[in-house]
Amino acid sequence: MWLSIARAAIVALAFVTSPARADDLADFNAAVENASAHNRVAIGYLRTGNLDLALLEIDRLREAWGVFERRFAGKRPAAFDGVALYGTVFTGIPARFVGIDLMISMGKPDAVRQALEAIRGDLYDLRKAAGIVVLADCVRDANAGMDALMVYDDRALDFTKPATRNDLAGKAQSYGATLSRCDGIASEAVRNSAEFRRLIDGAKASLTLIPKAIETRDGDLLHRVLIELRSFDNLLAFRFG
Fold first, then answer.
1. pLDDT of the chain along its 241 residues, tens only?
2. Contact 61, 35 (CB under 8 A)
3. How many Cα atoms sit within 13 Å of 229 on the Cβ side?
4. Exposure pattern of 187-207 as b/e (b: 16+ CB <10 Å)?
5. How many other C-beta atoms are found inside a 10 Å radius of the C-beta of residue 135?
6. With contact defined as beta carbons under 8 Å apart, do 198 and 1 qualify?
7. Are 195 and 203 in contact (CB under 8 A)?
8. How far out from the chain centre does Cα 182 lie?
9. Residue 122, SS3?
10. Burial class of residue 32 in the structure, from the number of CB atoms within 10 Å of its CB (0-12 exposed, 13-18 middle, 19+ buried)
11. Distance CA 87, CA 107 (A)
């Protein structure tokens, strides 16, 4: 009898505690996103040379990170059990803030942007280690795919080489697949928003022109398409990365 009661109590406790741990992850992701939103906007402003607005966003990032750190530094969601990077993030990112302050005082905005990108990478690596998938990480993958495509932004590209044509086509196809994956990961509200649809659908429409550029061996067309794609890619990172 007592054994049965004990088992029932364990089962009941599991139902009580498990949702709380799941909610912890949802709250964790929301808190990270709150900080990351300021980070990506700061990166965008630095990319366009608007240092004053970037500094405002960095201050907001620092404040949002402080709120996040106070809540989660000592309260690890279950999804991160056994993930060594969890503790590393809470020591490494504050150290990056110190470096950012130093680079700001030295007047090195490019170094500041690199440090902010590194914070983005720290969070990406943490979630990847825990098997957590969020839109921001998919957008980061898309950014990397776009970087690989931009290697072919060369009006003098030698289309006569089969390896060049095949690699360009493969990278374009891979980038399109990543955009589709991001589309699937996005929440319903984001997926249906006019801004997200414009960026995803616009990029996919531009990608359809790359096979034509390859077929006609048109370096100028390829250049225009890649510049257009890079614009979509930057905006995707600015808003959703």
1. 433 333 333 333 333 333 334 458 999 999 999 999 999 999 999 988 999 999 999 999 999 999 999 999 988 999 999 999 999 999 999 999 999 999 999 999 999 999 999 999 999 999 999 999 999 999 999 999 999 999 999 888 899 999 999 999 999 999 999 999 999 999 999 999 999 999 999 999 999 999 999 999 999 999 999 999 999 999 998 889 8
2. yes
3. 30
4. eeebeeeeebeebbebbbebb
5. 21
6. no
7. no
8. 10
9. helix
10. buried
11. 31
φ, ψ of residue 22 to 5 degrees: the values are: -65, -40
What is d(CA 17, CA 39) in angstroms, rounded to the nearest whole number? 33
Which amino acid is located at 178 in the chain? T
The C-alpha atoms of residue 206 and residue 147 are separated, in whole angstroms, by 16
Six token digits for residue 232: 């979509």
Q: What is the model's pLDDT at position 118?
A: 95
* Amino acid in position 156: A
The answer to whether 185 touches 135, Cβ cutoff 8 Å, is yes
Question: Cα 236 to the chain's mean position, in Å?
Answer: 9
Give the Cα-Cα-Cα angle 130, 233, 32 (nearest 5 degrees): 35
- Is the separation of the CB atoms in 84 and 205 below 8 Å? no
**What is the separation of C-alpha 9 from the centre of its chain, rounded to a whole number of angstroms?**
42
Residue 175 half-sphere exposure toward CB, CA atoms < 13 A = 28
Domain locations along the chain = 20-132, 133-241
Which CATH number, 1.20.120, 1.25.10, 1.20.1070, 1.10.10, labels domain 133-241?
1.20.120
Which tokens sit at 55?
């500094």
99 and 115 Cβ atoms separated by less than 8 Å? yes
